[in-house]
């Protein structure tokens, strides 16, 4: 698959963004449509997503548990399973060492539940973000060893924990590392009894972009299927996929391959929540799966922030308690606390963001292609969110840093095409510790070295990011004329869900459509347009959120011809519902 550039050039009525149109080999799409008996549009979209055979199309459109990969194809799995089974048989107490975000806490819940089903005895430790920071700490390992623990299993952490691994060996602890973050370049992996990470050297596991909970799930799958494959497949694993779907969406990993299977089945299973904590959390988020199916968007914007709030603002271990308690009242109390913490998080974030937006107007930030923003005493729990806000505002990679008593703690987010972890590795000598992946990183360092970090990253980004990269082009996935929009086509499109990173919701292009009425402005911010196209004069409504100002600047008037990039929507209003367009971008057709 390649992209065809369809540039909306500057016109007398304003400038526009570059549009890139997915260019799929017509012969491949036509063959897939015939072989899999698909509409050509769906075949084009599937081929662009790498599903170019009938079997691949089937797996994409109708994922099943049979599509889960063999956990034993992950390097280290056999050794990890054998040691955990041995510990359970000997009644050894095991320690699961987690992380404080959605990924780490759900990973802890999944593996804890799986081991306890084997009859194992498990303790867990989820670090406090502010008091301990990310990763395994020697003091916790020493305490565990003193209490008789002999096996430690990390989840969503550990691939760069060389010091912790050496400490575990000194203390006589066996260590199993389960993680998904990228190993440190050129230094290998920590010394451990087993390391489970699809990104480690020599691992042939096909899905390289599992989240941390996904790796913990594969270990759980291997343990449970070995004990009773039928029970695992019919009851336990589908239940586990509810939690794993939340973690996978929250961690923004590509929703392709096994991740797509996980999220598709997991979201379907969320229609029947049994876990007391999950039910309480859905109630706090005002989601009722009995009335409306839970979507990936619901998870990303309503469930994940509430779970994350615990680790950002308080004690993340309460998330593990929320999802493991059988007491409905305790579950409701914990879910209500997460709701309050999320409100506190939003208020804290808003106060810091106001100061950040004021500073972004400073010339050196406007000129830089990578933003490094720091402040004194900023709450560490919201740094990653603030980095995302800067990225959204500027279209540039962003790192946000908080200074506390001479130590700087930071979090970063990046644009497509700029590998942020590699950027940090170019400055590795500045950090006390750092880690992450292409799009998100975390680090700590002496405060006095932040100016040098800023200078080196600005230089690094200037050499690798072009002006065209900033803000990013608009990737459109197919051309779909208005007179080809049907209820059947929309029904097929729904089968491509869940959408997310790697499986973005399709953006369509329609050219030279006519504005068939005056522009309607709603609440002084939004617009609704009536568009027509084709020999039959097909009409359809288009809604533009926050488009009022831009439409006015373009001077668009009734009967103008427009090129429009849009997503297809269904308005469920009982009186004037039906299919409509959501405007992503538009320009007068004479600017093409």
What does this structure look like?
This is Single-stranded-DNA-specific exonuclease RecJ. Residues 94-248 form the DDH domain. GO terms for molecular function: 5'-3' exonuclease activity; nucleic acid binding. With 592 residues, this protein is α/β, with parallel strands linked by helices. It is 42% helix and 20% strand. It has 19 helices and 20 strands. It has helices at 26-36, 40-48, 54-61, 77-89, 102-117, 138-146, 162-170, 212-250, 258-269, 276-284, 296-313, 317-324, 328-359, 363-367, 383-394, 420-425, 450-464, 487-494, 548-554, and strands spanning 2-7, 18-23, 93-97, 121-125, 151-155, 174-178, 194-196, 371-376, 398-404, 407-413, 433-436, 440-446, 474-476, 478-479, 508-515, 520-522, 526-533, 538-544, 561-571, 578-588. A 5-stranded parallel sheet has the order 4-3-5-6-7, with helices on both faces. A 5-stranded mixed sheet has the order 8-9-10-12-11, with helices on both faces. Strands 15-17-18-20-19 form a 5-stranded mixed beta barrel. Strand 8, helix 15 and strand 9 form a beta-alpha-beta unit. Helix 13 (328-359) crosses helix 15. The model is unreliable at 5-15 (pLDDT under 50).
């Amino acid at each position: 698959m390649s992209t065809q550039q369809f540039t909306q050039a500057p016109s007398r009525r304003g400038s526009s963004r570059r549009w890139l149109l997915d260019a799929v080999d017509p012969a491949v799409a036509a063959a897939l449509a015939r072989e899999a008996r698909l509409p050509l549009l769906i075949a084009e979209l599937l081929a662009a997503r790498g599903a170019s055979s009938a079997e691949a199309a089937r797996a994409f459109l109708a994922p099943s548990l049979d599509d889960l990969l063999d956990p034993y194809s992950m390097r280290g799995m056999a050794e990890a399973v054998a040691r955990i089974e041995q510990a359970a048989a000997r009644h050894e107490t095991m320690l699961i060492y987690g992380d404080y975000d959605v990924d780490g806490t759900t990973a802890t819940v999944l593996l804890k539940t799986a081991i306890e089903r084997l009859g194992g005895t498990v303790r867990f430790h989820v670090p406090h973000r502010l008091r301990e920071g990310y990763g395994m700490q020697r003091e916790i390992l020493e305490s565990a060893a003193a209490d008789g623990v002999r096996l430690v299993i990390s989840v969503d952490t550990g691939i760069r924990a060389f010091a912790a691994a050496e400490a575990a060996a000194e203390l006589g602890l066996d260590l199993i590392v389960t993680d998904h973050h990228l190993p440190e370049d050129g230094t290998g992996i920590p010394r451990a009894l087993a390391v489970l990470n699809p990104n480690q050297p020599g691992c042939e596991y096909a899905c390289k972009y599992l989240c941390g909970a996904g790796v913990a799930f594969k270990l759980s799958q291997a343990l449970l299927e070995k004990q009773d494959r039928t029970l695992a497949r019919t009851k336990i694993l589908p239940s586990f996929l509810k939690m794993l779907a939340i973690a996978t969406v929250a961690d923004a990993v590509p929703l392709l391959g096994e991740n797509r299977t996980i999220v598709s089945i997991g979201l379907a299973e969320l229609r029947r929540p049994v876990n007391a904590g999950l039910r309480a959390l859905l109630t706090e988020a005002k989601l009722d799966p009995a009335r409306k199916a839970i979507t990936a968007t619901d998870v990303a914007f309503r469930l994940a922030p509430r779970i994350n709030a615990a680790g950002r603002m308080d004690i993340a271990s309460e998330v593990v308690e929320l999802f493991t308690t059988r007491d409905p009242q305790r579950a409701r109390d914990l879910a209500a606390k997460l709701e309050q913490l999320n409100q506190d998080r939003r208020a804290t974030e808003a106060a810091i963001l106001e100061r950040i937006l004021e500073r972004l107007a400073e010339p050196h930030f406007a000129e830089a292609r990578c933003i490094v923003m720091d402040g004194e005493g900023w709450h560490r729990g919201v740094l990653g969110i603030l980095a995302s806000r800067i990225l959204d505002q500027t279209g540039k990679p962003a790192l946000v840093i908080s200074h506390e008593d001479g130590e700087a703690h930071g979090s970063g987010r990046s644009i497509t095409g700029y590998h942020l972890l590699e950027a940090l590795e170019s400055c590795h000598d500045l950090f006390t510790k750092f880690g992450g992946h292409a799009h998100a990183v975390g680090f700590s360092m002496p405060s006095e070295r932040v100016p040098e970090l800023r200078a080196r990253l600005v230089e690094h980004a200037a050499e690798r990011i072009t002006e065209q990269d900033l803000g990013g082009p608009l990737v459109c996935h197919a051309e779909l004329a208005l007179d080809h929009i049907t209820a059947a086509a929309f029904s097929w499109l729904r089968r491509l869900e869940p959408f997310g990173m790697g499986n973005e919701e399709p953006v369509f292009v329609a050219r030279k459509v006519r504005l068939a009425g005056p522009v309607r402005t709603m609440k002084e911010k939004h617009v609704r347009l009536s568009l027509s196209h084709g020999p039959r004069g097909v009409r359809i409504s288009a809604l533009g959120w926050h488009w009022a100002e831009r439409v006015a600047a373009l001077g668009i008037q009734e009967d103008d011809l427009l090129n429009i990039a849009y997503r297809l929507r269904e308005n469920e209003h009982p009186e004037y519902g039906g299919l409509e367009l959501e405007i992503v971008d538009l320009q007068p057709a004479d600017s093409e």
